[in-house]
Design brief:
There is one protein chain. With about 220 residues, the protein is mostly helical. About 65% of the residues lie in helices and about 10% in strands. The chain contains 6 helices and 5 strands; from the N terminus they run E-H-E-E-H-H-H-E-E-H-H. The protein has helices spanning about 10-20, 45-55, 65-95, 105-125, 150-165, 180-224, and strands spanning about 1-5, 25, 35-40, 130, 135-140. Helix 1 packs across helix 2. It is found in: Endoplasmic reticulum membrane. Its main location: endoplasmic reticulum. InterPro entries: SND2/TMEM208 (IPR008506).
């Protein structure tokens, strides 16, 4: 039997020892979250629930695979409907009032629809669950509702694009809202990658300049 757990392996072992009903316990790999248990009378659901209680220690319990999949499906459905509704409204009004919009408007309309499609299918690919041959959930996929994850930024792109589509019907200048997406991407890159890298380089250069005078002082002392 293979039990998937998001908790520490040591906690799993403690629970199994308490029940004393399992043998042949081994971890598939050091970095794996799967526990293989042979000759075990303890059901995987009980083991998962007991492990959750033992390992939480005041922290919020980790979601189960089934809950993650259900929430991902609901999230995908919500943002799919948002993409369809806002794109449909924008396309409908653009063709009804064809003379009120220029070529630039229709080019950006095609771009925004492409953004919706790519963002939606990207979320589908990253949240796609994997199953065993017996239909057991092997991996629930990435949680689309986790805070600070990639999915949060993708959802922000969909919301921003939908807002730009709707407000562009009032004025073409509202297409400028799309500029916020690359600006935010640059800010995140600066915050998490470029900024820390520059700080590290400056610290290394400061350490080098501090060591250089020390070497010169040692040479002067030796000459004296």
């Amino acid at each position: 039997m293979v039990v998937k757990t998001d908790y520490e392996f040591d906690n799993v072992l403690k629970i199994i020892k308490e029940y004393g009903k399992c043998s042949g316990i081994r971890l598939n790999s050091k970095k794996s979250s799967y526990v293989r248990i042979n000759n075990c009378k303890l059901g995987p659901q009980i083991l998962r629930e007991e492990t959750q209680i033992k390992s939480s220690k005041g922290k919020q319990a980790t979601k189960g695979n089934k809950q993650v999949i259900e929430e991902n499906v609901a999230t995908l459905k919500f943002y799919r409907n948002m993409c369809i509704i806002f794109s449909f409204i924008c396309i409908l009004f653009s063709f009804i009032f064809y003379g009120s919009f220029g070529a630039f408007h229709y080019v950006l309309l095609i771009v925004t629809v492409s953004i919706h499609l790519s963002s939606y299918y990207f979320m589908i690919s990253m949240s796609k669950p994997r199953y065993t041959d017996n239909g057991v959930v092997l991996d629930s996929g990435n949680d689309l509702n986790i805070e600070g994850g990639i999915a949060e930024h993708v959802k922000d792109i969909i919301i921003l694009t939908a807002g730009a589509q709707l407000t562009s019907l009032l004025s073409t200048y509202f297409w400028c809202l799309l500029i916020l997406a690359p600006l935010r991407a640059f800010w995140l890159m600066w915050k998490h990658f470029i900024g820390p890298w520059l700080c590290q380089r400056s610290e290394e250069s400061n350490q080098f300049t501090e060591k250089k005078p020390n070497k010169n002082e040692k040479k002067i002392k030796r000459v004296r």
